[in-house]
Amino acid sequence: MLTERHLQIFVALAEEQHFGDAARVVGITQPPLSQGLRRLEALIGAKLFERGSGGVELTAAGAALLPFARRALGSIDEFRQAAVARDGEGPEIRLGLAPEVPPAAGAAIAAACGTALPGSRVTVVSGPTSSLVSQVSAGRLTLAVVLHPAVLDGLEAGPVRLLPTWALVPGDGDGESALSDLGGLPIAVRPRAEAPAARDLFLDTLALHRPDGGTVVVTDDRAALAMAAAGQAILVTADPLLAAPGVGRRRLTGDPLPTRLRLVWSRTRTPFARPADVMGQLTEALS
After folding, report:
1. Would you say residue 272 has pLDDT above 90?
2. Same domain for 242 and 129?
3. 27 and 42 fall within a common domain
4. The domain spanning residue 80 has which CATH number?
5. How far apart are CA 182 and CA 228, in angstroms?
6. Regarding predicted confidence, which is higher, 35 or 74?
7. pLDDT band at 270 (very low <50, low <70, confident <90, very high)
8. How many Å apart are CA 5 and CA 22, to the nearest integer?
9. Predicted confidence band of residue 32 (pLDDT cuts 50, 70, 90)
10. Which residue(s) pair with 49 in the sheet?
11. Do residues 127 and 190 make contact, with C-beta atoms less than 8 angstroms apart?
12. Which of 85, 107, 128 is the last residue in one of the domains?
């Protein structure tokens, strides 16, 4: 059976002329893209591309059929938008938030959904960046705020927003400190698997500014805050309100460890929103 995904693969490969680039556009890996192309060619009984060492080129049949594929995808998009417009309850927006997103920033994003898309129904879940990216790709989430950098598998993404961070340290008193002056306690970090690229950047920066002291893995900020209160660790956070008795807050000189966030969504799964308008408004809510 001919599916929307077959047409997406056809159009992406025609535009990108490279299997790897087309796979990223569609939001899948290269093996299923090649598989999908073979199935499409078998369904229509025609070869669509000539394969070469440098990429692919449309055959005569492929060039003739490409305008029809584009029109079909456009009609599907119009159908979705019409369905949303007729939904008296408005579109449902399933928003994912990485745990590093401060509560106030998460609330601002959720509120912005209602402003940018009047009548929308917003549900919110929290999860690690790697899981959120997968869920947006699969269509289980409409959009998500994730850590940067991250492998996005063909998803659309807004600009990176840098949130300032503080070090929460054992002891009373606030102030400012260089990262290198934060004593010998380990820095609390979440598991690398939650956001491998972002975590590696954090650890590399930490090693550059503070080669001694090490790190300790924690499950969440509550555990990290408890360890700071017990005099066992230092927590770096973008949450301006996170606090506990016996824990001081230090602004890090030069802000070497900002929390980098960006909004991600699927181009093919958000028929009611366009990056130039709605997604731009939502991204501004992170500022």
Report:
1. no
2. no
3. yes
4. 1.10.10.10
5. 13
6. 35
7. low
8. 12
9. confident
10. 58
11. no
12. 85
Mean pLDDT for 185-211 is 93
- Average model confidence (pLDDT) across the chain: 87
Q: What is the amino acid identity at position 217? A: V
Number of H helices, E strands in the chain: 9, 14
Instruction: Round to whole Å and give the CA distance between 68 and 254.
Output: 54
Nearest to 184 by CA among 204, 165, 166, 169: 169
Percent of the chain's residues with pLDDT above 70? 92
- Rounded-to-integer distance, Cα 282 and Cα 259, Å: 18
Are 154 and 269 part of one and the same domain? yes
* 112 and 245 together in one domain: no
**Residue 80 pLDDT:** 65
C-alpha–C-alpha distance, residues 36 and 33, integer Å: 5
Same domain, 44 and 8: yes
Which of 28-51 are b and which e, b meaning 16 or more Cβ less than 10 Å from the residue's Cβ?
Answer: beeeebbebbebbbeeeeeebbee
* Sign for the pseudo-dihedral over CA of 206, 212, 215, 221: negative
Rg of the chain taking only CA atoms, in angstroms = 23
Looking at the structure, tell me whether residues 110 and 184 fall in a common domain.
no
Tokens of 256: 């070497």
Q: What tokens were used for 274? A: 């366009």
The pLDDT of residue 271: 54
Distance between CA atoms of residues 185 and 216, nearest Å: 9
pLDDT per position as a tens digit, 94-142: 899 999 999 999 999 888 887 877 777 889 999 999 999 988 887 888 8
**End position of a domain, from candidates 29, 64, 85:** 85
**Of 172 and 85, the one with more pLDDT:** 172
Which residue range(s) make up the domain with 131? 90-161+260-284
